[in-house]
Write a structure and sequence with these properties.
With 358 residues, this protein is of the alpha/beta class. It has 13 helices and 13 strands. Helix 1 packs across helix 8 and helix 2 packs parallel to helix 4.
C-alpha cells in the first residue's frame, strides 16, 4: 500500500476544497498522491483545481464511480491508503424533478465503490489492512426534519429521509454500514450540515443569492423563508474530515455541524447587507429589494441542526469560523471570482434556472 488517497467527486464544491486543503503545505499529513476521480457532471469543475496544474502530488481521472472496472483499476494502480467518497448528485430540487441520476450515482455508484474497495482490501496484508480507510461523506438530511424545539440531530437519531436526494444518501449510508458489518471493510461515515464557501455551484441558496443580487435578478425564497439550516464553513468541514480520517474509530459515524442555525431569510438578508456595504448600487437601493417569495419546495424540511458533541469530544474537532466571518469571506470570494462564476453559468445552468424558477 502507498501513501496515496483516492478522492471521488473532487471537482465539486466540497471535494475541491478538500483536495486544496489536503495538498496545502500547512497540512501535516500530505499524501504522496491525490487521485481525483470525477466524471464532471454539470457540478464538476476542474477549474477549481487549476492551481494544482503543476503539482506532482495531484492527478485527475475523468470517469464515473459507477464504472467498476475503472474504479478497480485505480485501486490496483495506485494502492491507496484511503478513499474519500464525495461524488454524488447533491441538489435536492433536482432530485425532486428527476431522481434517476441520484439513484444511479448515490446508490449504485456507492455500491460499486464499496465492492472495488472490498476486493482491494481483501488482498492487503495485515499491516495495510489496519491502515486502510473508506470514508463516506454524507448529509444531515438523512435524519429528516426537526421542529423548532427539538434537540439537534445526534448520531443516534433514526433515519427519516424526506426527499429523493436524502433517501438516496440514506441508502448509501446503509450500504457503507453493511459493508463494514458484513465484510469488515474499515469504513467511516460523516453526516454534515449545509456547507458554504468558495467554489459552490450557484444553484444552492448562498451562491445563487449572491449571483442573482449582482446580476439584478430576483432572489427567490421558497415559502415563508423561515426554514432553518445549520451553516458550516467548508474549510471547517474539510478539517473535520481530516480528523475523522486520522483518528476516527472504524465503523463509526460522526455528525459535523457549524453551530450556526439561521433561517433562510436571515441568510439572504445578511448577504444583501454585506453586498450593500461592499458593492453598493448606484441608486443606493438595498439588494434586499430583490428578494421575492416564491412557491415552496415540495416536502421542504423545516429545520436541520447538528449535535456535534461526539466529534468534539472524541476527536477534538469543532467549527472555528463564525457565520458572520465565513459569510463575509464567501461574499468577498465571489466578488473576486466573477470569472469563475461566469465560466460555469453555462447553457445547462440557464436551462435549469429557466425550468425550475419560471
Ligand atoms: P457537488 O454537487 O458540488 O459535487 C459533486 C461532484 O461529484 C461533482 O464534481 C460531480 O462531477 C461529481 N460526480 C457526480 N456524479 C459522479 C459520478 N457518477 N462519478 C464521479 N463523479 C461524480 O457536491 P458537494 O456539495 O461538493 O457535495 C459533496 C458530497 O457532500 C456529496 O456526497 C453530498 O451529498 C455531501 N454533502 C454536501 C453538503 C453541502 O452542503 N454541499 C452537505 C452535506 C453533505
Ligand atoms: O443539509 C445538508 C444539505 O444541504 C446537503 O446534503 C445538500 O447536498 C445541499 O444541497 C444542502 O441542501 P439544502 O436543500 O438545504 O440546500 P439549498 O442550498 O438547496 O437550500 C438551502 C435552503 O434554502 C433550503 O431551505 C431551501 C432554500 N432555498 C433554496 C434555493 C436554491 C430557497 O429558499 N430558494 C432557493 O432558490
Amino acid at each position: 500500500m502507498k501513501n496515496n488517497i483516492i478522492v471521488t467527486g473532487g471537482a465539486g464544491f466540497i471535494g475541491s476544497n478538500f483536495i486544496l486543503e489536503t495538498l496545502d503545505s500547512s497540512n501535516s499529513n500530505i499524501p504522496d498522491l491525490v487521485i481525483n476521480l470525477d466524471c464532471l457532471t454539470y457540478a464538476g469543475n476542474p477549474e477549481n483545481l487549476a492551481s494544482l496544474k503543476d503539482n506532482a502530488r495531484y492527478t485527475f481521472t475523468k470517469g464515473s464511480i459507477t464504472d467498476q472496472t475503472l474504479v478497480t483499476s485505480l485501486f490496483i494502480e495506485y494502492q491507496p491508503r484511503a478513499i474519500i467518497h464525495f461524488a454524488a448528485e447533491s441538489h435536492v430540487d433536482r432530485s425532486i424533478r428527476d431522481s434517476s441520476d441520484f439513484i444511479e450515482t448515490n446508490i449504485v455508484g456507492t455500491y460499486r465503490l464499496l465492492e472495488s474497495a472490498r476486493q482491494y482490501y481483501d488482498h492487503l496484508n495485515k499491516e495495510d489492512k489496519a491502515q486502510f480507510r473508506f470514508l463516506h461523506i454524507s448529509t444531515d438530511e438523512v435524519y429528516g426534519t426537526l421542529n423548532a424545539h427539538d434537540v439537534p440531530f445526534s448520531e443516534k437519531n433514526k433515519y427519516e429521509p424526506n426527499s429523493p436526494y436524502s433517501a438516496s444518501k440514506a441508502s448509501s449510508d446503509h450500504l457503507v454500514r453493511a459493508w463494514h458489518h458484513t465484510y469488515h471493510l474499515p469504513t467511516l461515515i460523516t453526516n454534515c450540515s449545509n456547507n458554504y464557501g468558495p467554489y459552490q455551484f450557484p444553484e444552492k441558496l448562498i451562491p445563487l443569492c449572491i449571483f442573482n443580487a449582482l446580476t439584478n435578478k430576483s432572489i427567490p425564497i421558497y415559502g415563508d423563508g423561515k426554514q432553518i439550516r445549520d451553516w458550516l464553513y467548508v474549510k471547517d468541514h474539510c478539517k473535520a474530515i481530516q480528523s475523522v480520517l486520522l483518528r476516527g474509530k472504524i465503523g463509526e459515524t460522526y455528525n459535523v455541524g457549524g453551530l450556526n442555525e439561521k433561517t433562510n431569510l436571515e441568510v439572504v438578508h445578511a448577504i444583501c447587507h454585506i453586498l450593500d456595504e461592499l458593492k453598493p448600487k448606484i441608486n443606493k437601493e438595498s439588494y434586499v429589494k430583490q428578494i421575492q417569495f416564491i412557491q415552496d419546495r415540495p416536502g421542504h424540511d423545516k429545520r436541520y441542526a447538528i449535535d456535534a458533541a461526539k466529534i468534539q469530544t472524541d476527536l477534538g474537532w469543532k467549527p472555528e469560523t463564525s457565520f458572520e466571518i465565513g459569510l463575509r469571506q464567501t461574499v468577498i470570494w465571489y466578488l473576486e471570482h466573477q470569472d469563475w462564476v461566469n465560466h460555469i453559468v453555462t447553457g445547462e445552468y440557464q436551462h435549469w434556472i429557466k425550468k425550475h424558477y419560471s
